[in-house]
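Reviewer 2 asked us to include a model.

Predict the structure of this chain.
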Amino acid sequence: MDVGVFARDSDRLTHAVEIGIASGRVISVSFPETPPADAEADHPLLDRVFAYLAGENDHFNDVDVALTVPTDQRSVLEATRNVPHGETVSLDRVVRMAGLDSDESADLDAARTALSGNPVPLFVPDHRVRNAPGGPPASVAERLREIESA
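Predicted model (structure tokens):
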């Protein structure tokens, strides 16, 4: 199925993982306390996420995500997708990876806005950016970093 909301409880995160998909593209990722009652539990992408949560090295760079954000924010989110599994980088580094100037407050603000509004955390792994605004709940981000460093 390439359209719908899919979710499962995760003991590793102590939250559910919820993925929204439209036209075969991931449009949202969230980590609610429990899965929504109307969410489907079976989807191949959820299978991959749960294998990742069990310790499998998966960068998810082949997952098609829908990013409907301004160009400067898109470049930040796309740069964040390139932070390797298991690594953590500074916000300044992501800004430079996006081709922006980390000395320009407007570029830093664009990066903060992009990360705080990231609609698809995990597939745009903002948990790999130190002190990134927004993203998954702090406990989830910390757990994702632990899983990747194991």
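Strands lie at 4-10, 15-22, 25-30. Residues 101 and 107 are 6 Å apart (CA to CA). We have added this to the supplementary material.
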